[in-house]
Amino acid sequence: MEFGAQVGCYRNTWDSIRAVVELLEAGPWSSVWFADHYLPPPGRREEEHLTAHEAFTLIAAVAGFTERLRLGHLVLGNTYRNPALVAKMATTLDQISHGRFTLGIGASWFKREHEAYGWDFPSMRERQDRFEEAVELIRALFTQEGPVSFNGRYYHLDEAPMAPGCFQEPHIPILVGGTGERRTLRTLAQSGDIMNLDGWAGGPMSAEYFHHKVGVVEKHCETVGRDPAEIRYTVLMPTMVTDDSSAVAEFMANRRLGEGSAAGPKNYVIERIGEIVDAGASEIMIGGVLTDDLEQYQLIAEEIIPVFA
Fold first, then answer.
1. In this predicted structure, what is the pLDDT of residue 125?
2. pTM of this prediction?
3. Which CATH code of 3.30.300.230, 3.20.20.30, 3.40.630.30, 3.40.50.300 fits the domain covering 2-308?
């Protein structure tokens, strides 16, 4: 069983981020993940002046001083960058890290970011159309030998080479962010490699919920002719280990969390995570821990992760 951590990259400093990553690198953690936002979500105007570090730059920096942790985003927003550029940046990172990079990408949702930076924010339908096309294009650049041509509705390639290519064999894994059953999970079945259930979305993170989403992916795989065994299933679970009920209430309220979290006493957290592990998740990404709370990261490393070793 593997455990990663989604480390906060806004409302903080680079030094605080680096301190957490160094702790993870030295501990029992398997991976580190960053979100991709240009304003601190969820979008309070009074907080727009606070820091929000650019996600690809962070990963490149982290790749330079780590040797063991796998690296990725939960998740990149497709509307922020041309997908061919994303593929080029991804393969470069994969080379720098010697095969430790996972490309996590979603359709984008944060409208205010687009307004602030002058980017188009299409309708949900168009964003899903663009996302499906983008993931197909990226997979083609990762897997096809020689230059790639692509003629989609939104994206086009004219004999585009991808050199250097992926360090990993057969290619960089593609994690598809989101759990929309009609479009997003179909995109995963068509062109992705990893599903991630997101506890921030407030879903009831239970074995029943997990199995339902896996079942939807399997049906899409059957439709598109994909072996569902090729897809890994992971969960991002906001977590806090404490016996202080008031701290739990504050944790939940400040992060606008629902049933997708695991916040409470040690045994409760173990039970919540254990249910998802038993359901078939191959990796749990811990989220919600503040970057200046190194003691919480250490507590999870010492009291929670060894239970599932």
1. 97
2. 0.96
3. 3.20.20.30
